[in-house]
Every structure is written in structure tokens, then in C-alpha cells.
Amino acid sequence: MTIGIVGAGQLGRMLALAGYPLGLDFLFLDRGADTPAGRVAPVLAGRLDDPALLAELARRCDIISFDWENVPVQALQRAVRAARGSRATRGPRVAPPVRALAAAQDRLAEKRTFERLAIPTTRFAAVDSRAALERAARRIGLPGVLKTRRLGYDGKGQQVLRRPADLDAAWQRLGGVPLLYEQFVPFDYEVSIIGARARDGSTAIYPLNRNLHHAGILRLTLAPWPAARLERAAATALRRVLQTYRYVGVLAIEFFVHRGRLLANEMAPRVHNSGHWSIEGAVTSQFENHLRAITGLPLGSTAPRGHAAMINLIGTLPAARTLLAETGLHWHDYGKDPREGRKLGHCTLVETSATRRDARARALLARLYPDLAQLPAWPHPAHVRP
Ligand code: AMP
Questions:
Q1: What is the pLDDT of residues 221-239, one digit of tens each?
Q2: Rounded to the nearest whole angstrom, what is the distance from the C-alpha of residue 132 to the centroid of ligand 1?
Q3: What distance in angstroms lies between residue 1's CA and the mean position of ligand 1's atoms?
Q4: Angle 161-167-172 from CA coordinates, rounded to 5°
Q5: What is the pTM of this model?
């Protein structure tokens, strides 16, 4: 069975690496062949909305999935319909469902989905003009965050507004495309939850992740994060989203923890950076479970194998030999050229206790990022109960 994947980044690469033991083949579509997934599987190179390439992907694959949520939905649907029309068989399935993908591509649709499903989220307003920004800032208040509705990731395409005087500069920087203004949340920390839903409706949900970001980019994930009440609330929210879309595959939701409550920030209809620890830290990785879900296989156990910490390697890769001297450290090099702010790889530790994990993660983080401005305190800021 051949899985077609739109986007050939590190997520696609880790999907392929998880899929080979299951006997799956892969074909990727991305702008160039020199990509992380392109080093382990064939790539159709060209524009992601190129009708001829999408048609070829649809013709050669049994299932189409994504490693990136900003795939051109309409072009993909046209190609899949055409492939179905020209085949005696049913043609490729698309998983996760295109409706979930379309919602996750637009921060406004995403927030409305959370609202509709009674999942608490930040206060927000759509902003399409300078006057609308003024109204949104007045109604929701300052500070706030102005974000592009589409194509934002890792803190790109967003600006924090603290004073009325910031409105002009933010509008000049981001105006001209559809925007979203949301309340700035002085959160205590950030968590995410990841789970899979299979074709038969069964679900498998991973333990809660605690995430530390710097400059909008994830640096560290600790999992399982021992906050049972938050984990239950996050899993309930995840199940609601999985059910509403009759979702097939892996889905992630990121939350702020604010005054002991979860506020959903965004969802990702794909495997997620905060789930990389599951490769070594869970019985079945998020990558394998995504593939099991979309190919109709039973989902695997999401039980943790210990206490995992995952650190992203950003901008430059340290020499593997120095880190691999750490007992039990797992190293993942995505094969990318170094560039500031670029995720080049990650490493994972799995420890026998949360205390040992936290101590080792803290030491490793200090070694990898000595110049990093102070990350928030953890395990918990003193005033926060799990
Ligand atoms: P996003 O692209 O929405 O995931 O935002 C990237 C990061 O920016 C988040 O993980 C937060 O650390 C921060 N951030 C985004 N939105 C807000 C907000 N409304 N209030 C406070 N911090 C935010």
C-alpha cells in the first residue's frame, strides 16, 4: 500500500520511518526533492497546487495524508475526484478529512470550531480593516495578539499589542490580509494533547504534554505531564473535535493553562512536534498511530514507557558525538541545512521518574542553549496547582 503525503518535511520523514516496518510505501509531494522526507522516500517535486503533480500523487497512492496543514485543499480535492473517476476502484482516500484541514488552516474557523464545541478559548475578533482592529482592541482590550488568519506558524505572522500606540505599527506590518485579534493570555504554562481516531471510531489518546516555547518556537516537551484534571479536560476537548469531523488520523490541540483552566489556542490536523517524544517514550508512536488510523489498522497503545523529555535542536545542530555520550539519549537529525530559527532535529530522554527527567532535561537545555533568555520555571510556577 502506498501512502501519498503532501509536504516532505521532518514530520513526513518520521511518518515514513514509522511506516516501513508496517510494510507501507511512501510518495511525497513538495517544492523540492532536497527535503527531510526526500532522503528516505521518493518525492514529486513542484508546486503543491500543481494539478498534474496532484493528479499523479492521487493516481499512484491508496491514501493521501499531510505533513503540513496548509495544503491547497481545493486543488487536492479536484485531483482526488479526477483519480476516482478514472479508476475502477474507489481511488485514494484522504485522511485526515479535508473539512478538519480547512478549519485548521484558518485561525478564525478554528476558534469558531472550539466555540461551537464548547471548548474554552481566548476571546477573539476577526480583523479586516484598521477600523476593525480599533474596535477589536477596544472590545477585547489590550494587551492582545494580532495574528494572520492563515499561514502563521511558530509565532510567525503575529504581533503582541500592549499600548494603543502599537496598533498602527502592527497594522502596517500585518494588514492587507485577513487577521484575527485575540486577548493576550498571561498563561502559567502551555500544554498540548495528541490523539488518534481510527476509521471505526475508536480513539487512542496520549498523556498530556507540557511545552516550553521560546520566541514562539517549541524548545522542550515533558510527557507525561502529571496534571490529571487538565489531562481529562484536554482529552474531552480532543474527543469532541475528533468526533465532530469523524476524524481519521492524529490530531493535536495546544492549550494555555490560565488560572487552573485550559484555553484552547490552536489545533493541528497532523502529527505534532510536541508528540515526538512518543517515538521512544510511548508503546506506539504518534507516527505509527497516524498510519494505523489512516490504513484501517487497530490503534496501538499510547501508554508511556517512562518519563520523557524532548528538546528541539534549533538553528544549529550540536555534534552528535557530544550528545550521544549522554546515557539513553535518542538523537534525530532531519538532514536540513542550518538556518536561524529552523528546526534541524530533536533529542529525547526517557527516564524512570519525573524528577530524574526534569533534572536531566534542565541540565541538557542549559548545555544546548546557554544564551537562552530565562525559560519559565518548571515543574510548576509556585502558585499553580496541577
Ligand atoms: P501560535 O502560533 O498561535 O501557536 O502562537 C505561538 C506562541 O505564541 C504560543 O505557543 C504562545 O507561546 C504565544 N501566544 C500565541 N497567542 C497568544 C496569546 N493570545 N496570549 C499569549 N501568548 C500567545
A1: 999 999 999 999 999 999 9
A2: 21
A3: 39
A4: 115
A5: 0.94
